[in-house]
Write a structure and sequence with these properties.
The radius of gyration is 25 Å and the shape is elongated. Helices cover about 50% and strands about 25% of the residues. The strands form two sheets. It has a four-stranded antiparallel sheet with strand order 1-8-7-6, with no helix packed on it. A hairpin with a 4-residue loop joins strand 4 and strand 5. The protein contains eight helices and eight strands.
Length: about 300
Protein backbone atom coordinates (compact mmCIF):
# COMPACT_ATOMS: atom_id res chain seq x y z
CA UNK A 1 0.00 0.00 0.00
CA UNK A 2 2.87 2.38 0.74
CA UNK A 3 4.17 1.85 -2.80
CA UNK A 4 0.67 2.50 -4.18
CA UNK A 5 0.33 5.89 -2.43
CA UNK A 6 3.93 7.10 -2.28
CA UNK A 7 5.78 5.74 -5.30
CA UNK A 8 7.50 8.66 -6.98
CA UNK A 9 7.02 7.50 -10.54
CA UNK A 10 5.34 4.68 -12.40
CA UNK A 11 6.51 3.47 -15.84
CA UNK A 12 5.17 1.65 -18.89
CA UNK A 13 5.37 -1.57 -16.89
CA UNK A 14 2.63 -0.35 -14.55
CA UNK A 15 0.70 0.92 -17.57
CA UNK A 16 0.66 -2.47 -19.27
CA UNK A 17 -0.05 -4.23 -15.97
CA UNK A 18 -3.04 -1.94 -15.35
CA UNK A 19 -4.47 -2.53 -18.83
CA UNK A 20 -3.84 -6.27 -18.58
CA UNK A 21 -5.48 -6.34 -15.16
CA UNK A 22 -8.60 -4.69 -16.56
CA UNK A 23 -8.76 -7.27 -19.33
CA UNK A 24 -8.45 -10.05 -16.74
CA UNK A 25 -11.26 -8.47 -14.67
CA UNK A 26 -13.34 -8.21 -17.83
CA UNK A 27 -12.87 -11.91 -18.59
CA UNK A 28 -13.97 -12.78 -15.04
CA UNK A 29 -17.09 -10.61 -15.45
CA UNK A 30 -17.80 -12.27 -18.79
CA UNK A 31 -17.59 -15.69 -17.16
CA UNK A 32 -19.57 -14.78 -14.03
CA UNK A 33 -22.38 -12.51 -15.23
CA UNK A 34 -22.25 -12.81 -19.02
CA UNK A 35 -21.91 -10.07 -21.65
CA UNK A 36 -22.71 -6.39 -21.15
CA UNK A 37 -26.47 -5.85 -21.44
CA UNK A 38 -26.65 -2.39 -22.96
CA UNK A 39 -30.43 -2.22 -22.59
CA UNK A 40 -29.94 -1.74 -18.84
CA UNK A 41 -28.03 1.48 -19.58
CA UNK A 42 -30.88 3.10 -21.54
CA UNK A 43 -31.82 6.70 -20.71
CA UNK A 44 -31.74 8.05 -18.04
CA UNK A 45 -29.25 5.47 -16.68
CA UNK A 46 -26.61 6.29 -19.32
CA UNK A 47 -26.96 10.00 -18.51
CA UNK A 48 -26.37 9.26 -14.83
CA UNK A 49 -23.38 7.06 -15.70
CA UNK A 50 -21.95 9.86 -17.89
CA UNK A 51 -22.30 12.38 -15.05
CA UNK A 52 -20.82 9.88 -12.58
CA UNK A 53 -17.85 9.22 -14.85
CA UNK A 54 -17.07 12.93 -15.17
CA UNK A 55 -17.46 13.43 -11.40
CA UNK A 56 -15.19 10.45 -10.70
CA UNK A 57 -12.48 11.85 -13.00
CA UNK A 58 -12.68 15.26 -11.31
CA UNK A 59 -12.38 13.65 -7.85
CA UNK A 60 -9.45 11.50 -8.97
CA UNK A 61 -7.71 14.57 -10.36
CA UNK A 62 -8.24 16.47 -7.10
CA UNK A 63 -6.61 13.56 -5.21
CA UNK A 64 -3.71 13.10 -7.63
CA UNK A 65 -1.14 14.56 -5.21
CA UNK A 66 -2.08 12.00 -2.57
CA UNK A 67 -2.54 8.92 -4.77
CA UNK A 68 0.20 8.05 -7.22
CA UNK A 69 -2.11 5.83 -9.26
CA UNK A 70 -4.39 8.80 -9.96
CA UNK A 71 -1.48 11.03 -10.91
CA UNK A 72 -0.18 8.29 -13.19
CA UNK A 73 -3.42 8.21 -15.19
CA UNK A 74 -2.65 11.63 -16.65
CA UNK A 75 0.68 10.54 -18.17
CA UNK A 76 1.67 9.07 -21.52
CA UNK A 77 3.02 6.01 -19.65
CA UNK A 78 -0.62 5.18 -18.92
CA UNK A 79 -2.08 6.41 -22.22
CA UNK A 80 0.16 4.48 -24.63
CA UNK A 81 -0.39 1.00 -23.10
CA UNK A 82 -4.14 1.71 -22.96
CA UNK A 83 -4.12 2.61 -26.65
CA UNK A 84 -2.11 -0.53 -27.48
CA UNK A 85 -4.71 -2.74 -25.80
CA UNK A 86 -7.55 -0.82 -27.46
CA UNK A 87 -5.97 -1.16 -30.91
CA UNK A 88 -5.40 -4.89 -30.44
CA UNK A 89 -9.01 -5.48 -29.36
CA UNK A 90 -10.30 -3.29 -32.19
CA UNK A 91 -8.23 -5.26 -34.72
CA UNK A 92 -9.73 -8.47 -33.34
CA UNK A 93 -13.16 -6.88 -33.75
CA UNK A 94 -12.37 -5.99 -37.35
CA UNK A 95 -11.16 -9.49 -38.16
CA UNK A 96 -14.12 -11.24 -36.49
CA UNK A 97 -17.61 -11.31 -37.94
CA UNK A 98 -19.80 -9.27 -35.59
CA UNK A 99 -23.10 -11.09 -35.78
CA UNK A 100 -23.55 -11.96 -32.10
CA UNK A 101 -23.41 -15.68 -32.87
CA UNK A 102 -20.68 -17.98 -31.67
CA UNK A 103 -17.81 -16.89 -29.43
CA UNK A 104 -17.50 -13.82 -27.21
CA UNK A 105 -15.46 -12.14 -29.91
CA UNK A 106 -18.42 -12.18 -32.31
CA UNK A 107 -20.05 -9.36 -30.33
CA UNK A 108 -17.22 -7.16 -29.11
CA UNK A 109 -19.49 -4.30 -28.07
CA UNK A 110 -20.83 -6.53 -25.27
CA UNK A 111 -17.42 -8.06 -24.44
CA UNK A 112 -16.37 -6.86 -20.97
CA UNK A 113 -12.60 -6.59 -21.67
CA UNK A 114 -13.37 -4.43 -24.73
CA UNK A 115 -15.77 -2.18 -22.80
CA UNK A 116 -13.49 -1.80 -19.76
CA UNK A 117 -10.51 -0.96 -21.96
CA UNK A 118 -12.40 1.90 -23.59
CA UNK A 119 -13.68 3.10 -20.21
CA UNK A 120 -10.05 3.14 -19.05
CA UNK A 121 -9.07 5.21 -22.10
CA UNK A 122 -11.88 7.66 -21.30
CA UNK A 123 -10.56 8.04 -17.74
CA UNK A 124 -6.99 8.56 -18.98
CA UNK A 125 -8.27 11.12 -21.48
CA UNK A 126 -10.19 12.97 -18.78
CA UNK A 127 -7.18 13.09 -16.46
CA UNK A 128 -4.95 14.29 -19.30
CA UNK A 129 -7.41 17.08 -20.19
CA UNK A 130 -7.66 18.29 -16.59
CA UNK A 131 -3.89 18.18 -16.24
CA UNK A 132 -3.38 20.44 -19.28
CA UNK A 133 -6.19 22.79 -18.23
CA UNK A 134 -4.59 23.08 -14.79
CA UNK A 135 -1.24 23.91 -16.40
CA UNK A 136 -2.87 26.55 -18.61
CA UNK A 137 -4.70 28.18 -15.70
CA UNK A 138 -1.54 28.23 -13.61
CA UNK A 139 0.43 29.38 -16.67
CA UNK A 140 2.83 26.48 -16.33
CA UNK A 141 2.27 25.20 -19.85
CA UNK A 142 5.27 25.70 -22.14
CA UNK A 143 3.06 25.50 -25.23
CA UNK A 144 1.71 28.45 -27.19
CA UNK A 145 -1.90 29.61 -27.32
CA UNK A 146 -2.89 27.74 -30.49
CA UNK A 147 -1.16 24.55 -29.36
CA UNK A 148 -3.01 24.61 -26.05
CA UNK A 149 -6.34 25.25 -27.78
CA UNK A 150 -5.64 22.44 -30.27
CA UNK A 151 -4.71 20.03 -27.47
CA UNK A 152 -7.87 20.76 -25.48
CA UNK A 153 -10.17 20.57 -28.52
CA UNK A 154 -8.62 17.32 -29.76
CA UNK A 155 -8.73 15.58 -26.39
CA UNK A 156 -12.13 16.90 -25.25
CA UNK A 157 -13.55 16.04 -28.69
CA UNK A 158 -12.20 12.51 -28.47
CA UNK A 159 -13.57 12.15 -24.93
CA UNK A 160 -17.03 13.35 -25.99
CA UNK A 161 -17.11 11.15 -29.11
CA UNK A 162 -15.85 8.07 -27.26
CA UNK A 163 -18.15 8.28 -24.23
CA UNK A 164 -21.32 9.30 -26.07
CA UNK A 165 -20.82 6.68 -28.79
CA UNK A 166 -20.42 4.01 -26.10
CA UNK A 167 -23.24 5.07 -23.76
CA UNK A 168 -25.50 6.06 -26.65
CA UNK A 169 -25.38 2.47 -27.85
CA UNK A 170 -27.98 1.70 -25.16
CA UNK A 171 -30.52 4.07 -26.74
CA UNK A 172 -29.89 3.15 -30.36
CA UNK A 173 -32.77 1.28 -31.98
CA UNK A 174 -32.53 -0.66 -35.24
CA UNK A 175 -35.62 -2.40 -36.61
CA UNK A 176 -36.92 -3.70 -39.93
CA UNK A 177 -40.37 -2.98 -41.30
CA UNK A 178 -42.06 -4.82 -44.15
CA UNK A 179 -44.30 -2.43 -46.07
CA UNK A 180 -46.96 -3.15 -48.69
CA UNK A 181 -48.39 -1.01 -51.47
CA UNK A 182 -51.44 0.91 -50.25
CA UNK A 183 -51.21 -0.29 -46.63
CA UNK A 184 -50.03 1.64 -43.58
CA UNK A 185 -47.73 -0.32 -41.31
CA UNK A 186 -46.95 0.57 -37.67
CA UNK A 187 -45.20 -2.67 -36.72
CA UNK A 188 -41.53 -3.59 -37.07
CA UNK A 189 -39.23 -6.39 -35.92
CA UNK A 190 -36.15 -5.86 -33.76
CA UNK A 191 -32.98 -7.95 -34.14
CA UNK A 192 -34.41 -10.62 -31.82
CA UNK A 193 -37.54 -10.97 -33.96
CA UNK A 194 -39.82 -9.29 -31.43
CA UNK A 195 -42.68 -7.13 -32.73
CA UNK A 196 -42.34 -3.44 -31.88
CA UNK A 197 -45.02 -0.79 -32.35
CA UNK A 198 -43.39 2.21 -33.98
CA UNK A 199 -44.11 5.93 -33.39
CA UNK A 200 -44.68 6.31 -37.14
CA UNK A 201 -46.53 4.46 -39.87
CA UNK A 202 -45.15 3.86 -43.37
CA UNK A 203 -47.15 3.18 -46.51
CA UNK A 204 -45.42 1.96 -49.66
CA UNK A 205 -46.73 3.97 -52.59
CA UNK A 206 -44.49 2.46 -55.26
CA UNK A 207 -41.43 0.23 -55.53
CA UNK A 208 -38.82 1.46 -58.01
CA UNK A 209 -36.23 -0.69 -59.76
CA UNK A 210 -33.76 0.10 -62.53
CA UNK A 211 -31.81 -2.70 -64.19
CA UNK A 212 -28.78 -3.17 -66.40
CA UNK A 213 -29.12 -4.60 -69.93
CA UNK A 214 -28.61 -8.12 -68.56
CA UNK A 215 -31.49 -7.66 -66.13
CA UNK A 216 -29.42 -7.34 -62.95
CA UNK A 217 -30.61 -4.66 -60.48
CA UNK A 218 -28.85 -1.32 -60.86
CA UNK A 219 -30.97 0.64 -58.41
CA UNK A 220 -33.94 -0.10 -56.21
CA UNK A 221 -35.84 2.37 -54.06
CA UNK A 222 -39.20 2.96 -52.41
CA UNK A 223 -41.60 5.84 -52.75
CA UNK A 224 -43.20 6.04 -49.31
CA UNK A 225 -45.70 8.04 -47.27
CA UNK A 226 -44.84 8.47 -43.57
CA UNK A 227 -47.35 9.40 -40.89
CA UNK A 228 -46.25 10.27 -37.34
CA UNK A 229 -48.32 9.93 -34.16
CA UNK A 230 -48.53 13.72 -34.09
CA UNK A 231 -50.45 13.55 -37.36
CA UNK A 232 -47.70 14.87 -39.62
CA UNK A 233 -47.58 13.24 -43.07
CA UNK A 234 -44.58 13.42 -45.39
CA UNK A 235 -43.65 11.70 -48.64
CA UNK A 236 -40.16 10.71 -49.75
CA UNK A 237 -38.14 8.37 -51.94
CA UNK A 238 -35.75 6.10 -50.04
CA UNK A 239 -32.72 4.74 -51.90
CA UNK A 240 -30.21 2.14 -50.70
CA UNK A 241 -27.57 4.74 -49.85
CA UNK A 242 -29.90 7.72 -49.43
CA UNK A 243 -31.97 7.39 -46.24
CA UNK A 244 -34.84 9.68 -45.30
CA UNK A 245 -35.02 11.14 -41.78
CA UNK A 246 -38.16 12.04 -39.84
CA UNK A 247 -38.70 12.57 -36.09
CA UNK A 248 -35.23 11.26 -35.24
CA UNK A 249 -35.60 8.08 -37.32
CA UNK A 250 -33.52 7.34 -40.40
CA UNK A 251 -35.30 5.14 -42.92
CA UNK A 252 -33.11 2.98 -45.17
CA UNK A 253 -34.00 0.81 -48.15
CA UNK A 254 -33.16 -2.77 -47.13
CA UNK A 255 -34.86 -5.30 -49.39
CA UNK A 256 -37.83 -6.30 -51.55
CA UNK A 257 -39.62 -9.30 -53.03
CA UNK A 258 -36.80 -10.71 -55.16
CA UNK A 259 -39.13 -13.14 -56.95
CA UNK A 260 -41.30 -10.28 -58.22
CA UNK A 261 -38.32 -8.04 -58.98
CA UNK A 262 -39.39 -4.71 -60.49
CA UNK A 263 -43.03 -5.72 -60.01
CA UNK A 264 -42.56 -6.11 -56.25
CA UNK A 265 -45.39 -4.75 -54.13
CA UNK A 266 -43.35 -5.30 -50.97
CA UNK A 267 -40.43 -3.27 -49.66
CA UNK A 268 -38.37 -4.00 -46.55
CA UNK A 269 -37.12 -0.88 -44.79
CA UNK A 270 -34.63 -0.52 -41.97
CA UNK A 271 -35.35 2.17 -39.37
CA UNK A 272 -32.58 3.46 -37.11
CA UNK A 273 -32.83 5.87 -34.19
CA UNK A 274 -29.61 7.09 -32.53
CA UNK A 275 -30.40 10.08 -30.26
CA UNK A 276 -26.79 10.42 -29.06
CA UNK A 277 -25.38 10.71 -32.59
CA UNK A 278 -25.37 14.57 -32.57
CA UNK A 279 -23.11 14.46 -29.49
CA UNK A 280 -20.77 12.05 -31.27
CA UNK A 281 -20.62 14.45 -34.22
CA UNK A 282 -19.95 17.32 -31.82
CA UNK A 283 -16.87 15.48 -30.56
CA UNK A 284 -15.69 14.82 -34.12
CA UNK A 285 -16.15 18.48 -35.09
CA UNK A 286 -14.14 19.52 -32.01
CA UNK A 287 -11.29 17.29 -33.15
CA UNK A 288 -11.46 18.83 -36.62
CA UNK A 289 -11.35 22.29 -35.05
CA UNK A 290 -8.33 21.17 -33.04
CA UNK A 291 -6.59 20.10 -36.24
CA UNK A 292 -7.25 23.57 -37.72
CA UNK A 293 -5.77 25.20 -34.59
CA UNK A 294 -2.68 22.99 -34.90
CA UNK A 295 -2.31 24.21 -38.49
CA UNK A 296 -2.45 27.86 -37.43
CA UNK A 297 -0.05 27.22 -34.56
CA UNK A 298 2.41 25.52 -36.88
CA UNK A 299 2.24 28.37 -39.39
CA UNK A 300 2.88 30.99 -36.68
CA UNK A 301 5.96 29.08 -35.54
CA UNK A 302 7.31 29.03 -39.09
CA UNK A 303 6.65 32.77 -39.36
CA UNK A 304 8.71 33.46 -36.22
CA UNK A 305 11.58 31.39 -37.56
Amino acid sequence: MKWFFNSSRWTFIEGFLTGGGLIAIGLLLQLCIGPVVWETFAWPVNGIVMGGLVLMIVLMFSLRKKVTAFRFLGTYQAAIPAMVYAVLLTVVMGLTRQDGRGSWLSDMLTFWPFVLTYVYIAVVLGMTILRRLNQIVRRKSAKGFWQNVAFVLNHVGLFVALTTATLGNADMQRVRMTTFVGEREWRALDRDGAVKMMPLAIELKRFIMETYDDGKPKRFASEIRVQTKAGKTVEAVVDVNKPFEVDGWKIYQYGYDTQMGAESRVSILELVSDPWLPLVYTGIYMMLAGAVCMFFGGNKKKGRR
